[in-house]
């Protein structure tokens, strides 16, 4: 689609073909030089391990148009590092952090006119992925790999954005202790398709997963992390090794502590004890901060702040985070990479 035809003020989270994507191959122990290409179709072996055994991982990050017209990419080095952890777990070759970050910059620059304007609420979503390819049949690591980054202009992931959303606690498990919950691999998301569809069919925004060992503690949303604000004004998030370590969450922890002066806790959030929390939210690159108005669990319906309005702490966190991302508020440390 030509960028002039895009209604940037009303974007959802849908595939739009942009002009260029980065593509690099790994063969015989080394990555090639990588290049921007226009073809949005991959030609890979039918035996690719990514297709049969889920040997693949991906990332998600965003580029923002600032008020002065410049372009910010938010914490790409953190996505590079997380992808390295995913690759290590799945026996795939690592992409050096500098190569990853430079490839992101190239993709953003080449697709600059697809970046939603400042103030539209949208961003250019980058989707890096690394997959096992090459001719294969047995369950073993691939002999060849492909690393690519494409991008799509996006708006809200959960329709309605910064409004209270209703979530359903799922009976399904997303990830096992010592499994792959903490890495960003497709299998985790395949496992979440049916539970998520069930929740949406029942008019919920999405579902929340409990820890699969005891089914008593909140873990995450399946496409975003969970946080809550206690009556004592602490920022709490589940401390679990099967949750994806979110870059948005990590940033919110810093913001809560340094800008809002809050205490930050990683701990247990028991599903039977939600009365302790005055606000809750889902956070992630796609989800940004999606306020959680209520959670349904086994016929119990727990309302946090309100079903109609967003709590004041959630609002402040949102303002700080999105202000930093779009360049209105000075970013701490190395959070912003300019294109
Ligand atoms: N948890 C899951 C399962 C996710 O898919 C995501 C999104 O990437 C997150 C949490 C949030 O991570 P981040 O803030 O790095 O996007
Ligand atoms: C992200 O927020 O980047 C995600 O990957 C979540 C979802 C789109 C899978």
Q: Can you give me a brief rundown of this structure?
A:
The protein is of the alpha+beta class and 339 residues long.
Protein architecture, described:
This protein is an alpha+beta fold. It has six helices and 18 strands. It has helices spanning 49-52, 76-89, 97-110, 186-201, 247-258, 312-325; strands spanning 21-27, 30-31, 35-37, 56-58, 61-65, 71-74, 123-133, 144-154, 165-169, 206-210, 218-220, 225-230, 235-238, 264-267, 277-284, 288-297, 300-303, 336-338. Strands 1, 2, 3, 4, 5, 6, 7, 8 and 18 form a nine-stranded antiparallel β-sheet that branches. The longest helix is centred in the middle third of the chain and has 16 residues, at 186-201. The mean pLDDT is 96. 2-OXO-4-methylpentanoic acid (COI) binds at residues 60, 189, 223, 284-286.
Fourth-tier CATH superfamily name of the largest domain: D-amino Acid Aminotransferase, subunit A, domain 2
User: How widely separated are the two ends?
Assistant: 23 Å
Largest sheet: 9 strands, antiparallel
Small molecules in complex: pyridoxal-5'-phosphate, 2-OXO-4-methylpentanoic acid
Mean pLDDT: 96
Helical fraction: 10-25%
Number of domains: 2
> In what range is the share of β-strand residues?
25-35%
Sketch the topology as an H/E string, one letter per element.
EEEHEEEHHEEEHEEEEHEEEEHE
How many E-type strands?
A: 18
Low-confidence region ranges:
none
What fold name stands as the CATH topology of the largest domain?
Answer: D-amino Acid Aminotransferase, Chain A, domain 2
Cα gyration radius (Å): 20 Å
